[in-house]
C-alpha cells in the first residue's frame, strides 16, 4: 500500500504493478483505512504530512486493527 497526498508520488510507485506487484494506493490516511477492508499488506509506504490523517496516525490506527497488531513501524 502506498499512501501519499501527492498524485505524482503515487503514480511513480504504481509503476510497480508492471513488475507484477499488487499495489493499492490511497491519497491520505483516512482513505487508506477504508481500503484496508480486512486485507493484509506486506509493506505500507506512507507520507508523514498529509491532510485528513497523517502517516504516523495511520500506522497507529493500522496496528489497532485485528490482524495487524504485530505490524512494525
Outline the fold blueprint.
Layout: E1 2-3, H1 7-14, E2 25-26, H2 29-36, E3 45-46, H3 55-64
Helix pairs in contact: 2-3
Question: Can you characterise this structure?
Answer:
- The protein is mainly α and 73 residues long.
- The protein has one domain (2-64): Rossmann fold (3-Layer(aba) Sandwich).
- The chain has 3 helices and 3 strands; from the N terminus they run βαβαβα.
- It has a 3-stranded parallel β-sheet.
- Helix 1 (7-14) links the parallel strand 1 (2-3) and strand 2 (25-26).
- Helix 2 runs parallel beside helix 3 (55-64).
- The protein is globular and about 30 Å long.
- The mean pLDDT is 88.
Number of helices: 3
Strand content: 5-15%
Mean pLDDT: 88
Structural class, please? mainly alpha
CATH class membership: Alpha Beta
Topology pattern, helix = H, strand = E: EHEHEH
For the record, the count of structural domains works out to: 1
Amino acid at each position: 500500500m502506498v499512501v501519499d497526498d501527492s498524485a505524482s508520488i503515487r503514480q511513480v510507485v504504481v509503476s510497480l504493478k508492471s513488475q507484477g506487484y499488487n499495489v493499492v494506493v490511497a491519497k491520505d490516511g483516512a482513505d487508506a483505512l477504508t481500503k484496508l477492508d480486512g486485507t493484509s499488506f506486506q509493506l505500507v509506504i506512507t507520507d508523514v504530512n498529509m491532510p485528513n490523517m497523517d502517516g504516523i496516525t495511520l500506522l497507529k490506527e493500522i496496528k489497532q486493527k485485528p490482524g495487524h497488531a504485530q505490524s512494525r513501524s
